[in-house]
Amino acid sequence: TQLLEQSPQFLSIQEGENLTVYCNSSSVFSSLQWYRQEPGEGPVLLVTVVTGGEVKKLKRLTFQFGDARKDSSLHITAAQTGDTGLYLCAGVNNFNKFYFGSGTKLNVKP
Amino acid sequence: NAGVMQNPRHLVRRRGQEARLRCSPVKGHSHVYWYRQLPEEGLKFMVYLQKENIIDESGMPKERFSAEFPKEGPSILRIQQVVRGDSAAYFCASSPPPYRDDGLDGYTFGSGTRLTVV
Question: Which of A31, A33, B47, B62 is the most buried (most CB within 10 A)?
């Protein structure tokens, strides 16, 4: 059972464009994390959001946790080629168990 | 390098052999998690361990797979009698105790072991 659905699965855009990646679930999580993974490497943690409605900004990246703590979005402004990678969301339950989405593969073209 | 160290990076085994994957957590981290990833997919949880304890092994196949995190030394994921379907990237992550304020933010992944069964 895939608890977390990410969309889109693939995204190819030009440098300078904006994009939003979505992570949706019917389950409530105590917190949610976003990771970026490059080929041949492990995922790198970008952010943890804990409170419903929380918004966190990391330079050109904006993360939002849904009010009901079931969904999240990642918005990238003015994408750069260095943003290319696989973006994974992970929901964490009260028993510290992580559920990963299937990922959004982003390609930013120069 | 203070990160999670996994070795080997690449492992090739023939069907029926044993595979042993090692994970040394970040210094001071007492919790280790193992995940499996197939190409173009997300990570599937396998097992969550604390020193000398298995906290949650609900993602581990019941047969051929085992994991340990001894008092001294790295965590080991062991796959006996490997089959072609075991080919995947296996990632280890470590964290401080989750009840600490930095528990989740300290969650760190290793670079993985890519297992190929021929």
Answer: A33
Write out chain B residues lying below 8 Å of A48, CB-based: 104-105
Assign B103 a pLDDT band (cuts: 50, 70, 90). low
Residue B39's SS3 state is coil
Tracing tokens 């089959």 back to the chain, one arrives at: B83
Rg (CA), chain A: 13
pLDDT tens digit sequence for B6-35: 999 999 999 999 999 999 999 888 899 999
Give burial (CB, 10 Å; 0-12/13-18/19+) of B76.
middle
Match 């964290």 to its residue by tokens. Answer: B95
* CB-CB neighbors (< 8 A) of B58 in chain A: 97
